[in-house]
Amino acid sequence: MFPFNFEWVWDIGHYLFFGGFWYAIGILGAGMTYCIAKAAYDTVKGSQDNHH
Amino acid sequence: MDAALIPEGAKRCSFPKFMLGIAIVGAVLLWGVYAMLLCWFKGLNQTNMNDYYGFALWIWADLAVIAVGGGAFFTGLLKYILKIDELKNIINFAVIIGFICYSSALLILAIDIGQPLRGWFIFWHANVHSMLTEVAFCLSLYFAVLTIEFIPNILENRQLNKVPFFHHLAHNMHGTMAIFAATGAFLSFFHQGSLGGVAGVLYGRPFAVREGLLIWPWTFFLFTWSAAAFGPCFTLLVTRITEAVTGKKLVKDNVVHLLAKISGWMICTYIIAKIIDTIYWATVTAPGLGFEMSHFYTNNSFYGYWILVTEVIICGVIPGILLINKTTRENHSLRLLAIILGVIGVCLNRWVMVLQVVAVPVMPFDTWALYIPSWQEVATTILPVAYGIILIAVTYRYLPVFPQERELNQSKAQES
Question: Is 0.80 surpassed by the pTM of this model?
Fold first, then answer.
């Protein structure tokens, strides 16, 4: 899972599998971080938008 | 008692009646939990699996719920990426159904691996040459996507939405949902496909093995395609059941017709590909490996040609035709028949690709290996159904799942 695991090898299999895995986690993590940070900012700012 | 939590303007049954329903389904759930604990504490000897039948009822249930849960990713793709706006009226429910299906799939896997405490090994010590590793990665990540898609609906609960932070969070998550939906579609494409790919690369199993494109056997594409085709049928079926139980119309006909039409065209294109695949396998692949087609459908008491005809013609061609034809699609009973047949068809396909594959004898000294699941396997397979009913009941009661519910039932409420 991580390069410091004993069975890690820098080969195409690990590039593809873990490249995709961390890429997807990165997108989901960044997306949620943005939403949470913006929600916190909006809350502090007190903006009132009610259109979903 | 819980009126403050119920969506504004929505009519729900009394709290005691609701709790009685939950208690009845909860008893079934507890039966499943008991069987699950038996499997965890006593081991997989509680099942009727053996060295011949390493894949059994659970893996079929796993593949089936993942296939019918495909309605969530496909509806999300249509709504957020292809911008088919009418589907906003059913997307919440599609996501809840997907969430139930994928959490059930993960639960079944947690029972099936026998030692759930080592479940994390699949990530930590991943075998990067295994399609099932890819399935595990995509399944877990897509479950995270479904959770993210479900959260805004939870935050729109009448009381939670009064909290400014939750209100803004739900709003912002709606705004960025296209990114999550696109990620979900990408992940779904690969895990649905890899589940089919697992069957297609079983070189020792001539019933399953297929040629393909590069490293992907044709079953890879057929599984993804069938999930996208039949998943919306399951969404429509559960919506119809919910309408019948609640006695209310929850989604407008134009939305149902649209999703049914898209599903119908997907089913038709899929079934053409499936028929071509079956003919090629029966006339080229299997004979090339030394087997006649009849070998896979005769000399046993269960698997006959009936299963092929039922899967492809009765539960494939017929629902496809019924759903692409405007007259039959807009006929309430025929549409219901089509979506029921469609759901049965995709579940039957997964059964064939999991259980018939391992039942067929492959060596000259082999015989058909038919298997009957133990009660523990049956109970743990019914467990997700009970869990799904409870989650749908709770979400329907407390969350604004159906945006058109109020409008569709306003006149009815005024009359009463």
Answer: yes
